[in-house]
């Protein structure tokens, strides 16, 4: 049995995931812009609703892909004399997965969690005080106290990523290259921040720090 057509369809579905991811990235940026420009809270909440809609689409797409992959693997494994209705088999599996959906699934979506985390940090930066003058002054102090130099490259960061384990920030390309180099030597990566005791930095522990990047960009403009 040739599964080329199905494999091609699955490949197209996986491409759709990249569009969903891009949409979630854009929604996150828009929400942060809204907070930064002191827009109405309702506008920010609307962007959160958009993120949850994207998370729902992502979950549905993942279930659809998984259902088809399981169906194909089942048929390949069992090798029946008469080829069953693959679409119906996949649909049954899909509906079974969808039947146990819950709102908590969406809350655990990685990009939605990142959105909430960055939104919280942004609000802390910009809405921590009562007046705009106080906020500007507070941000100025925060910037002056921050170290925008990457502990690896020793130059100002362009694409900062934060380690979820120890909280330290590095230039994305620099830390990923370090991880890759040490992986080839079958060695673990110690956090390059002086004094940090974390001895096993993994790529999966790194998240883009949009707030920190905005602070760096803002400092450059001054």
UniProtKB/TrEMBL annotation:
Pathway: Protein modification; protein sumoylation. It comes from the Eukaryota. GO terms for biological process: double-strand break repair via homologous recombination; protein sumoylation. The keyword Transferase applies. Keywords: Ligase, Metal-binding, Nucleus, Transferase, Ubl conjugation pathway, Zinc, Zinc-finger. GO terms for molecular function: ligase activity; SUMO ligase activity; zinc ion binding. It is found in: Nucleus. It holds the Pfam family zf-Nse. Residues 135-221 form the SP-RING-type domain. GO terms for cellular component: nucleus; Smc5-Smc6 complex. Belongs to the NSE2 family. This is E3 SUMO-protein ligase NSE2. It comes from Urocynchramus pylzowi.
